[in-house]
Amino acid sequence: MDINKLNNIGGSNVNRTNESTQGEASEKNSNASVDTPVDKVSLRDYPFRNNDQLFAKLELEKLNQSSSQQFKKMKGQVSAYLEASDNPDADVQQTELGQKLNDPSVWGNIANKIIK
Asked: Which residues sit opposite 8 in a β-bridge?
C-alpha cells in the first residue's frame, strides 16, 4: 500500500507529500537557524545594563572589597609594630611600619601634603 495513493481516510483529505517541497521547507528552516545566532552572549538580558543605580552599587561593592583588603594589610602592619614595641627583645625598626616612621622621604611627603 502506497501512502501517496490514498485520497481520503475517514472523510478527511490526506495531503500528499512532494519531495521537492520537503527539500525547500528544510532548506528554509536551515537558513532561518543560520541567521539567528544561538550561542551569542547578549547584555540585553542583564538588569544593570540600563540601570545606573545597580551599576553604581556593583562598583561600590568592588571598591569596598579592595578597601577592606587594604585595611586588613594596614591592621596587620600596626599589630606587628605594637607587638614589637611591647616586647623589649624585638627591634621596632625591623617592622614595616617602624621603617616607614623613620624614613625621611615619608616625612617629606607628609610635610608637602601639609603645606599644600
From this structure: 13
